[in-house]
Write a structure and sequence with these properties.
Blueprint (H helix, E strand, L loop, with lengths): L3 E7 L5 E7 L12 H17 L3 H35 L8 H24 L1 H19 L5 H16 L1 H10 L8 H5 L2 H17 L21 H22 L7 H6 L3 H14 L8 H5 L14 H9 L5 H34 L2
Antiparallel strand pairs: 1-2
Helix pairs in contact: 1-11, 2-5, 2-6, 2-8, 2-9, 2-14, 3-4, 3-5, 3-6, 4-5, 4-6, 4-9, 8-9
Keywords: Membrane, Transmembrane, Transmembrane helix, Transport
Subcellular location: Membrane
Organism: Penicillium desertorum
């Protein structure tokens, strides 16, 4: 029989609701290390399930999907532009593909910074600012006068969008009812949308506004090689529009599950109350229910304290099962990170050599 931890919630309807934390199928049983957090998350999850799927979550699905789209847009954008930029300005090193390297360094840096900061200060700031910064740097990249300056801007817009991928998935997941969490996996469809848009734009710009493939390096004039610039201006403008939609179409708040982990119970209830009132839904959870469970561990300390920052890393290795899960996922992403750049770096040169 699965191990469960019962907790009781009574709401405004005076209907007693018993919630269970079922850890039998979890990779990480949080109740073994912080039972208060486990019980509070169970209560919050039940409240979200009672409210159900609303237009708010559907908007998030599309707006977060824009982030997936932009992620693939920008990765492919620099890959397609690289031969044209190299033809116009030459490359500092014959064997070093500086633009591709700049992109990968930026993606790695962005993933580390955005991911960790979102755990510390919450999802909202990173969610609202990552696409906006990516749009600004992409537009500026289209006007760069040299190889080094262009590679620098590529690294910057890659860093801006680097952590956006996981932020979009995490933010959506933390707002969804349990029976709709499959939408996070379905989000991958937005990657295909990004590839398609970039391919169509490149077909229009690169084929009509680029130097001939036979042109010598450095012999390609500015006015004859505007395709890669038009590509960046257009994708940057599209990204800017999508980033503004994310800010103004839906006013994102901190996710209820993250707020629970920070012991900010009143804000959780406020969000659930506002959401249920707007869409005429009901839920039973009250502020007293959450507070009666106690305080989550270490939340009395600053979010920048050594103890709490260390927990973000040590928590990945709490159990053998969790450690293996983390390592396998990292290995999968490592392989993807090796194969994908090889493909994107090689493909433009292959197509160029075949006319």
């Amino acid at each position: 029989m699965p191990e469960t931890i019962p907790t009781t919630s009574s709401g405004p309807t005076s209907k007693e609701t018993t919630v269970y934390v079922d850890s039998s199928k979890d990779v990480f049983d949080s109740s073994a290390f912080d039972p208060v957090l486990a019980r509070k998350l169970a209560l919050a999850n039940t409240a979200i399930d009672q409210i159900g799927m609303t237009p708010f979550q559907w908007k998030l699905f599309f707006l977060n999907g824009f982030g997936y789209t932009v992620d693939s847009l920008l990765v492919i954008c620099q890959s397609i532009a690289m031969p044209a930029v190299t033809m116009q300005y030459g490359s500092p090193g014959k064997s070093l593909k500086g633009i591709a390297l700049a992109s990968q360094i930026g993606l790695l840096t962005g993933a580390a910074i955005w991911g960790l900061s979102a755990d510390i200060i919450g999802r909202r700031l990173a969610f609202n600012s990552s696409l906006l910064l990516a749009a600004i740097f992409t537009i500026i990249a289209g006007g760069m006068p040299g190889y080094i300056s262009f590679a620098t801007l590529v690294s910057l817009y890659s860093a801006a969008v680097g952590g956006n991928y996981i932020l979009d998935a995490t933010t959506l997941l933390e707002f969804l009812p349990v029976n709709k969490t499959w939408l996070v996996t379905f989000m991958s469809i937005w990657w295909a949308v990004g590839y398609t848009i970039t391919g169509l734009l490149a077909w229009a710009f690169m084929s009509n506004y680029s130097c001939f493939p036979t042109a010598a390096s450095g012999a390609c004039a500015y006015q004859d090689n505007m395709g890669w610039r038009y590509l960046h201006f257009t994708i940057g403008g599209l990204t800017l529009m999508l980033s503004l939609l994310r800010v103004f179409l839906i006013r994102i708040v901190q996710t209820p599950r993250w707020l629970i982990s920070q012991n900010r119970d009143a804000e959780v209830i406020q969000f659930l109350t506002d959401l249920s009132a707007k869409y005429d839904r009901q839920f039973d959870l009250t502020l007293d229910d959450l507070r009666s469970e106690g305080d989550v561990k270490n939340t009395e300390k600053s979010v920048w304290s050594v103890v709490r920052i260390k927990a973000h890393f040590s928590g990945l290795f709490r159990t053998r099962k969790l450690t293996w899960s983390f390592l396998v996922i990292m290995l999968n992403w490592l392989v993807i990170g090796i194969v994908s750049p090889l493909y994107h770096v090689f493909l433009p040169y292959y197509l160029k050599s075949r006319g």
